[in-house]
Fold this sequence. Notes:
Number of helices: 6
EC number: 3.1.3.2
Enzyme class: hydrolase
Shape: globular
CATH architecture of one domain: 4-Layer Sandwich
CATH superfamily of one domain: Metallo-dependent phosphatases
Protein name: Purple acid phosphatase
Helix content: 10-25%
GO molecular function: acid phosphatase activity; metal ion binding
Structural class: alpha+beta
CATH topology of one domain: Purple Acid Phosphatase, chain A, domain 2
Number of strands: 28
Radius of gyration: 22 Å
Bound molecules: 2-acetamido-2-deoxy-beta-D-glucopyranose, fe (ii) ion
Amino acid sequence: MGMKRVYTGFLCLLTVLILSSRVRLCDGGISSNYVRKYNSNVDMPLNSDVFRVPPGYNAPQQVYITQGDHEGKGVIVSWTTPDEPGSNSVLYWAENSNVKSSAEGFVVSYRYYNYTSGYIHHCTIKDLEFDTKYYYEVGLENTTRKFWFVTPPKPGPDVPYTFGLIGDLGQTYDSNNTLTHYELNPLKGQAMLFVGDLSYADNYPFHNNIRWDTWGRFIERSAAYQPWIWTAGNHELDFVPEIGESKPFVPYKHRFSTPYRVSDSTSPLWYSIKRASAYIIVMSSYSAFGTYTPQWKWLKNELPKVNRSETPWLIILMHCPMYSSYVHHYMEGETMRVMYEPWFVNYKVDVVFAGHVHAYERSERVSNVAYNIINRKCSPVRDESAPVYITIGDGGNQEGLATEMTQPQPRYSAYREASFGHGILDIKNRTHAYFGWHRNDDGYAVEADSLWLFNRYWKLDEPSASHVMR
Length: 470
Ligand SMILES: *[C@@H]1O[C@H](CO)[C@@H](O)[C@H](O)[C@H]1NC(C)=O
Ligand SMILES: *[C@@H]1O[C@H](CO)[C@@H](O)[C@H](O)[C@H]1NC(C)=O
Ligand SMILES: *[C@@H]1O[C@H](CO)[C@@H](O)[C@H](O)[C@H]1NC(C)=O
Ligand SMILES: *[C@@H]1O[C@H](CO)[C@@H](O)[C@H](O)[C@H]1NC(C)=O
Ligand SMILES: *[C@@H]1O[C@H](CO)[C@@H](O)[C@H](O)[C@H]1NC(C)=O
Ligand SMILES: [Fe+2]
């Protein structure tokens, strides 16, 4: 063993001693060895308070909203009535107005194996005022239910806005903790960027879709009041040809609406929206994305349309991460990375959020786009044009945490920890955004990992485009 090896080893040991609660490997960033509380990974029982059916005949349940247009002046309201179709209209009015308007939607239902859904309503409200609180009411006669939402400000480069980030939520006691921590976080999220894997109903025999209904009732307490921006994950596939369910995404597509047409998409599984100073592109990891496929063609046309003078923050959501150093699902996102990483670097995407791996991880700004089959340039390198990749698949579902990490921690990995939690992306203005990751075991205000993001388009004088502040 050479002197240099011994010296390096000594430095490593020293670093470990200095960072007492964190293990820093020489190769990469931080692998937190924080020990979370014991979790049992069981779904909350059907009679749990969070799954309570609202009282009254045919009472609307599973009420949730999402953005309903491209700019933020539209809202899609979805709800389910159990006994009969009832009304498809939503009554709505601005907080400071007595004028009530009504929008008309439509109703769908579906069968899945031997399950029959309730009457699932979707209604798009258009042409609302920006930055305004609205009340809305769904249901008929005796059993109407009233909620509210706040529209975002008009898109513009310096409009501050706060997004929540949750992935792989499920419906365990941990899921409930994650949602509670999101709700009680003093940095109030105004809209949720949900990176896929919603109910985990598919882990039940015959994908018992009753667990889709319970999930809809569980998230209502947040999703009826602020838009949840949907991304489809593998647990939305519900593809089981053995029991006659050979069409993917049937429960998901019936239950969740997205405003895909306004971004010229041909599928609800990939689309874009503008919200305040952010341009958000949602992709589908489980739909064809190779060259010439509809998703590829759409994204190819979409990226040049983003006007960074109007919406400086370009954010991509997908379920399966392109950079993840956990053992579970290792390299599953590799095909997507090979296809799209050059575009993300070229268009200076700010952040790519993903789920799938049930843990948290944040990358350095790296790219791996030089490889051409024969040149051996196949390792990620620092790249100031590259996005930060954040895996936030730690919502708390019944499958538990992905605890096994590849060793040593690769250089591209800046921070990783297997704990349940959520993220907050707090956009301040065209140049600065702050990202914080909150683990459920800490207090509501505590950030276990955080960083300032400097915009990819509005270049700054700072020597490094991202650095960690603790
Ligand atoms: C659906 O089929 C499963 C398995 O045969 C059975 O346990 C369940 O009770 C059935 N559900 C309905 C609604 O018929
Ligand atoms: C609505 O409420 C009225 C008065 O309480 C009651 O008479 C009527 O039966 C209710 N209608 C339904 C559909 O429950
Ligand atoms: C879920 O969390 C909410 C809010 O903290 C709490 O009121 C409720 O009792 C919890 N439900 C379960 C089943 O843990
Ligand atoms: C981009 O947005 C800016 C600011 O809103 C606007 O002035 C400009 O005209 C837009 N550019 C294009 C090509 O639409
Ligand atoms: C943008 O926000 C950052 C962080 O809050 C602040 O330091 C900076 O001065 C702001 N820039 C402008 C132009 O207001
Ligand atoms: Fe997943």
